[in-house]
Write a structure and sequence with these properties.
The protein has two domains: 150 residues, Leucine Aminopeptidase, subunit E, domain 1 (3-Layer(aba) Sandwich); 321 residues, Zn peptidases (Aminopeptidase). The strands form three sheets. Strands 7-8-10-9-13-17-14-15 form an eight-stranded mixed β-sheet, sandwiched between helices. The protein has 14 helices and 17 strands. Helix content is 34%, strand content 22%. By secondary structure, the protein is an alpha/beta fold. Bound molecules: ligand BES, manganese (II) ion and zinc ion (ZN).
Length: 492
């Protein structure tokens, strides 16, 4: 979709386009329009948020449709509200098959107009590359978006970084949507290598490299996969000092999770192609940071592996040695994410000495039982770090809820045979997500650290908002991007 910002007052004559505008509950419309709306909607459209009215081929305007979006009271509309308006306008224009959308935003600040354009772009995402004959309903009819504003230049400037953010969200959605026969670990590495963003450094540590590093925990997950396990290291160095300690992210990149020998039940198993959602969010955030040349050093360590089954697979009872030297008794091969992250955390901490380290993973089903689909679980013993992550998520509409990770739960993962075991035994699923966080903690060492368990919001089945079409959400990209950005120009 081509997006442009233009001035008002053009002669609007395009029967293939929809004209759309917000209607505020407390701002009167021109009399003629107000009475047309009154008649057509029987008085039921007053500009409430979530409400809309569509006039197809209105007699008084030379456009294919007039789309009115309820915007609530004028003073209450924030950037997120403008995103919703852009998303709803785009969705309605596309539902009616129009080829263009003209979004009229008179007297709207450039930042708000830019967010409306972002909302429209985010809502226009579809993943249909494997459909040989996509139906009209699979695609978005709108190919051009013209945003009519007071100051097009200022809007363009405000939109540029948001456009990069949307690129990052789309990268994450693409990676999560792609099935595991296509996005297997080696293909994932190739895709990362192919990211062509000036200044974004990409490095792949292949299986031989991981063996040399002693990554016995990560490698154990991939034993039965025909594909090489790897780490992808993404670096953006935009700070004044390129050697200054970075903000670091470590992602779970399990391209498919069968459960391994502790095999998962069949129902819903296809969703386990999305078990790399944490790593995808990190890749998207790094892309967005690089696209706007953020003045910050950031690094992403993606732990990319397939949890397959086969004769060579990791077994329950096996003891593996992690990169840190810690030994792990594998009780359940389906608790593989923490095995992968353990070595990612060690590697990241040892090599980059980061200011803070945040891991992101679709780690447990238990977190979904606690929080549902709209919140990621946040675990950290660092209160300020937790607050900063929650605030970043709140600002971007990617919500986090802090959950406890008490030291007392360490007793559940004490092993008779090794330093630790990978799951609790004898307490069912009690505190499963908290115990996973406890498992990870020693691998973070004394680096300020937080763990985000995003099983719920990474892959809901239905659309949660107009800007998030059904399917992969790209959850985490915006949150991580904002969190990293909050360190801009602050000396370590
Ligand atoms: N990838 C899963 C977690 C998951 C489940 C994400 C459902 C999204 C939807 C993870 O590897 C896993 O299997 N976790 C187990 C842990 C258990 C064996 C302690 C789980 O949650 O059941
Ligand atoms: Mn698993
Ligand atoms: Zn998993």
């Amino acid at each position: 979709m081509k997006i442009t910002f233009v001035s008002h007052g053009r002669d609007m004559a395009d029967p293939t386009a929809a004209a759309a505008m917000p209607v505020f509950e407390d701002a009167p419309l021109p009399q003629a329009l107000a009475s047309a709306i009154e008649r057509a909607t029987n008085g039921r459209f007053g500009g409430a948020p979530g409400a809309s009215a569509v006039f197809l081929a209105p007699a008084w305007l030379d456009v294919g449709a007039l789309v009115l979006i309820g915007a609530g009271p004028r003073a209450k509309l924030d950037d997120a509200g403008f995103e919703r308006i852009g998303g709803e306008a785009l969705t309605l224009a596309s539902t009616h098959g129009l080829k263009g959308l003209i979004l009229r935003l008179p007297e709207i600040a450039p930042q708000a107009a830019a967010h409306a354009a972002l909302g429209a772009r985010l809502s226009a995402y579809r993943f249909h590359r494997h459909k040989t004959k996509p139906k009209a309903s699979d695609t978005v009819s709108v190919a051009t978006l013209e945003v009519e504003v007071d100051d097009p230049d200022a809007c363009r400037d405000a939109f540029a970084p948001l456009d990069g953010l949307a690129d990052g969200v789309f990268l994450a959605r693409d990676l999560v949507s792609e099935p595991a026969n296509i996005l297997h670990p080696e293909a994932y590495a190739v895709r990362m290598k192919a990211l062509d963003i000036p200044g974004l450094e990409i490095e792949i540590i292949d299986e031989a490299g991981l063996e040399a590093l002693g990554a016995g925990s990560l490698l154990s997950v991939g034993l039965a996969s025909p594909y090489q396990t790897c780490m992808a290291v993404l670096r953006w160095r935009g700070a004044a000092d390129p050697e200054a300690p970075p903000i670091a992210f470590v992602g779970k990149g399990v391209t498919f999770d069968t459960g391994g020998i502790s095999i998962k039940p069949a129902a819903g198993l296809e969703e386990m192609k999305a078990d790399m959602g944490g790593s995808a969010a990190i890749a998207g955030a790094l892309l967005a940071l690089a696209a706007r040349k953020a003045r910050i050093n950031a690094v992403g360590v993606l732990c990319i592996v397939e949890n397959a089954i086969g004769g060579g697979a990791l077994r329950p009872g096996d003891i593996v040695t992690a990169m840190s030297g810690r030994t792990i008794e594998v009780i359940n091969t389906d608790a593989e994410g923490r095995l992968a992250l353990a070595d990612g955390l060690t590697y990241c901490r040892d090599r980059f000495k980061p200011r803070v380290m945040v891991d992101v993973a679709t780690l447990t089903g238990a977190v979904m039982v606690a929080l549902g689909l709209d919140y990621g679980g946040l675990y950290s013993e660092d209160g300020a770090l937790a607050e900063a992550l929650i605030a970043a998520g709140q600002a971007e509409g990617e919500l986090l809820w802090r959950l406890p990770m008490p030291e007392s739960y360490d007793r559940h993962i004490e092993s008779l045979a090794a330093d630790v075991k990978n799951v609790a035994v004898g307490i069912g699923r009690s505190g499963g997500a908290s115990i996973a966080a406890r498992f990870l903690k020693p691998f973070a060492g004394d680096t300020p650290w937080a763990h985000l368990d995003i099983s719920g919001p990474a892959w809901p089945t239905t659309s949660a908002a107009p800007t998030i079409p059904a399917g992969a959400t790209g959850y985490g990209v915006r949150l991580l991007h904002r969190f990293a950005s909050s360190f801009e120009d602050t000396a370590p």
